[in-house]
Design brief:
Layout (H helix, E strand, L loop, with lengths): L1 H29 L3 H6 L5 H11 L10 E3 L21 E3 L5 E3 L17 E9 L5 E7 L2 H4 L13 E11 L7 H10 L13 H36 L4 H15 L2 H15 L12 H30 L2 H8 L4 H12 L1 H17 L2 H7 L4 H10 L3 H29 L7
Antiparallel strand pairs: 1-6, 2-3, 3-6, 4-5, 4-6
Helix pairs in contact: 1-15, 6-7, 6-9, 6-12, 6-14, 6-15, 7-9, 8-9, 10-11, 12-15, 13-14, 14-15
Length: about 425
Amino acid sequence: MLRYITRRLLHLIPTVLGVIVITFILFNLVGGSPGRMALGEKASAEQVDFFDEQQGFNKPVIFGTRIKTLALGDYDFSKSAGPWSNPSNLSHNASGFLESRGIPAPPLAFALRKDTAYEWNATWRNLNEPWKKTKWLAPSGIEATNLAPLFVGAKSEFQIADIKLRRVVKNPFDSQLAHYFRQLAHFDFGTSTAANLPVIQLIKDGIRPTMMLATPILIAELIVSVSLGLLCAYFRGRFLDRAMVFVSVALMSINYLVWIVVGQYLLAFKMRLFPVWGFESWAYLVLPVLIGVVSGLGGEVRFYRTVMLDEVYKDYVRTAFAKGVSTRGVLFKHVLRNAMVPIVTNVILSIPFLYTGSLLLESYFGIPGIGYLSVNAINSSDPDVIRAVVLIGSVLYVIVGLIGDLLAAFFDPRIKLS
């Protein structure tokens, strides 16, 4: 077994690395600008640039030495002159080129940094001459505002097809991916832009309320659903079994949000049996736990009923009855024991969801757990919090898979760990 555990743990390393890379791609590449998401569309380019500098989002994504800067974006002059239409010595002609009567002044959104080198690239030509590409590496931000070295040989009037500004990075390996790995190596998940607190601190604060809500739901739902599954197996084919299936299907058909709204309105608001909102004592958890158990009971009962019926029709059950074992003994000593593998597997797979809790329950009942934190992070576009919750949940899911295999081998000796 030790050899199996060691091998599985070694297999976890590439899996976890894959999860880290996927979450990095989702939040650093696919999702657009993290700074723009966090600060909003009305934030200025300088504010977003400062945010990217603080969070490391202005580095190369994986590898590179030339990085776009928000001081001046890339514009397609065939469609529009963009901010270049403001300088008086420039005009945008019908062919889609900028026409200059002198060296243009760059319309920067904010001042370039004095301690950073910049590179300009341009495609331009004098009138009636071939197009040519030129570049100019400015030693610092002050010199970079003078574009005369970029247009050496330009006559009184010339055309510009495109012009780009790039920030020069000295170390090509100092990238966002490397920065992300360095953070994770120190268990640093960044800082929440909404709460201005370390993400790890927010997660620590949210674990306790989430566990207080999710653990009773898991335990109560397991006990009730397994008991009802055994009851269906005992009365299989009879009225009680069919009625239980009907009720289970009905429970599965009701949307989760309906349970929350009806429970809050009738039991909390109208009948005043429970608090509507907050997290001040255990009394605030009774109603959400009750809703969580009832809403998930339909699917769980159907699953465990199927598991129990699958065991009831096996040969060892008929042998046990033939030997005179009582019905209670057969159900609890034989059927339940042999059904432990799918039961344990189902419970183990539910454990990662304990970490995130119930997003809707925590949000509608004001329970400050991980689910509540996640919803607020999504609403406020807080990328570090969302990324940390997804990453930790994924790693937990991988780890509990190993635990599930070990428990399955423990309950069923026929399973060999190899």
